Amino acid sequence: MDKFMIEAIEMAKKSFKEGGIPIGSVLVKNGVIVAKGHNKRVQENNPILHGEMDCLNNAGRIASYKDCVIYSTLMPCYMCAGTIVQFKIPKVIVGESKTFAGARAFMEDHGVEVIDLNLDECKQLMNQFILKKPEIWFEDIGES
To answer: pLDDT tens string for the chain (144 positions)?
Structure first.
């Protein structure tokens, strides 16, 4: 596993420790971490602060994302995928998509390369959270 996904997993663990949904994200430009983020919907009572959104917000303004890769511990939802497509981030590396299939086809249909690593550690984090707080998980994915 590469160092960027390890960092995304650390961000997911941070969210979990804070009582939030364990999804972490890292934005990398030209091989350097530009920003990190994690899901803060619970912690900040913000319905759109998913891991990828927090990461991009923490990155601030970037003139061009053409040399960027975004890492996420879970397949991005349509909101996050829309932002990835809007900013023309060319590549997404995902920890897993078994827990949530997300918007892979949407991103690929818009030219984004999506790599799913299918990591047990990411699945275990999500399963642990869903068992503990299913109502928050279903709220997060719009199924409450």
So the answer is: 799 999 999 999 999 999 999 999 999 999 999 999 999 999 999 989 999 999 999 999 999 999 999 999 999 999 999 999 999 999 999 999 999 999 999 999 999 999 999 999 999 999 999 999 988 887 877 776
Catalytic site residue from 7, 52, 121, 139: 52
Instruction: Answer yes or no: 18 catalytic.
Output: no
CB atoms within 10 A of CB 140: 22
